[in-house]
Amino acid sequence: MRLRDENQKTGHLLSFISKDNRDDNFSFFFPVKGLDQFDTLLEITTGFERVLQKYWQAYECISYSIADFSRMESPFPEVNRRRVSIFEQDEFLSENCKFMDDFGEIIIDRHMRKYEPIFPEIITGAMATGSSFYDRRDKIEKIWKDLENGNNILFRAPRRYGKSSIFHHISRNTPQNWRACFVDLEGGKSPEDFVEYILVKGIFTQKDCNLYLPNRLSVLDIHGKTEIEKTDIIRQERKKIRQDWQSYAKELLSSIEDKSGEKRFLFILDEFNFLIEEMLENNENNPDTVNVLLKWFRDIRKQTVRVQFVLLGSEHLPTFLKNSKINGLLEDLNEVHLDLFNEKISREFAFLVLSGQKIVATRSEIDHILYLMGSPIPYFLQLFLDAICRKCKEERALSPNEIENVYYGELLGSGSKRYFESIRKQLERYQRYGPKSRVGAERILDQLAMSDSVALDTLKVVWQEITDGDEHFETILGLMQDDFYIKEDNHHYLFFGSKLLREWWQKHGLSGVR
Amino acid sequence: MVELSREHLEFISKHFPSPYNTPEKFGEYLISKIHLHGTLCTSAMAEVNTLLSPLIEQYRSRFFCRIDDTHLFKSPASIVDKLYRAYKARLTNDGSDSGHYNLENSITIMTDLARFRIVCNFFSDIMKVSKKIENSEKLNSYFEIERKSSINHRPKDRKSGERSIKFTMKYKKNPGLFLEIQIMTQLQEAWDKKDHFLVYEKHRQAPDKDDEHFPDFLDAKMLAMSELLYVADNYFDALRASREDKDNNEEVS
User: Among A153, A261, B157, B188, which has the highest number of CB atoms less than 10 A from its own CB?
Assistant: First the structure.
């Protein structure tokens, strides 16, 4: 793995030109050093021509020999410089010098779709948006199909799988007959908060949602107000919500339903499980208030036609509700799960990210990265690629051993501690299930970190020893499924679903406990 | 750029395989056939660039040479023209060399399908570049190199106005793959560009109609200009030598 050499001025320009309009073109420039690269250059050009056959009706591939990269307009006057990417041949060649069609296809595909930027940026923490939001096309198609059929959705996945990113993308890329409103429910502790967040953190933040509000609110045109005036309006509305949240919500949702006309309105409610957990904690684990909210919400879903909902929650949400004696209130929702990137997509993603950072990586180096981190949880994959890119830019090149050093020394090192803090902090949440729940969970993680897999019964014994009983054992395991990617096989053996997190726990969790 | 006549189009329709036997598609057919030439041209150009970089560095205080990457490939229309003339020659049995070409063998026997030009400042620069190419171990390991010079041709041997050194490079691993490298001065290149537009294309299409095409003796005037520039190039080189060689000698002493 090395930094790309972009100083070579002579090379081969492969230009993909629209048959309808020559100005619509994009090109790849391959610097060439000499005759020793003739065979590989031929492999590359033939490979791209093969890949382009999928688009032969729309585009043609023309190659140009370029003496000086800065004067590429001489042979190809219409070249769109903004859409010229420089690559080294090695980025598309396997170890035995064969063109790698999958990398060729993905790069052509992103250019054809005119993604900006072509190369996903490294996002460590915030939601991935725009073209940095990667793939998931099949899932998005399924979601829209479900929604078009009138279904409401419970969208589940463990933490850091990219639930919010996918729905952020959906909310910004709705079909014409849809309007979407993204609402983050984190921090909410009551049904009143639920309604308030929908209004304040959802509708009020989107100018074009104003016309859906009840008349008394839409005439206020909150988006045209000063911050002080906005705060005042919010204060007044909050007061009304506190007086009778159900009537308020009914007025709001009826207005949206009535004013949607031919369109449909989608509420995306993120961190739904946090709201429920906080509500339970707020009521000392008494499920009554949650039951009231969820029953009311279920009725609303039955009544509304043009207003639809997607609830984003952790994988454990149904078990969690069941263990909290809250039953049957989300069963009308269509369940959709978000899986991890498969091997092919992970490899393509790593290739694009590294290439975007001007780093030449061979396929085996990319595979080595993916092997080291195990399950390609998007957040961790981004962290690892970020660490690799930083190191490679410092050193100009990294050997496979050095890549391993980045993994063990940097990603799992103390310097990256802050990236894992939020995961570790989840253990504090567990204390709401008893003062010893946190230690119990830590012991379970210890056991799982030390063995490839551990029988469910063994873990139960560990839990009992620490907490003096088996209460909340299943709830905690459910939570750990989301927070620490703990998985269970068909023989009731549990294991870390993330090699990286297991190794992180071995390094930092075990010693911390001891 | 060669314009296709009715005869050319008839030739395409009759001799090119379907669906490429149309004015719209024949180019696609030929371009796909010279795919190898393109990559070879880039690789050779890069090799020559590396080869010449010490010379460019040595003469960095002035313009030494540049590689011209425009018009690297013979245009499909020019190839068709060449094929058509060969076809005609065969029919009339005129015994000329052009009769050898046909659609099947053209890609492997035409030596100028891909070419690039090295444009030098002075005559002596051409010689230095030429020597580098001829003596390059790397180039010789990949190519059989044939050198033809028209720089100091005697009047009786002059076939065209341009004065240059041309290398025909036969790729050893794939004997039907050729590349041409042309080396000339800036003045010769300037003349060539003007002549191509004013005289060359018209003369090539109808060699026996010069009287009709150039009643004002434009062809003769262009040839005379070439000679004038040849004199200019010689004189410039002498002027260069009076300064540069003197400076070099002083540096050595």
Answer: B188
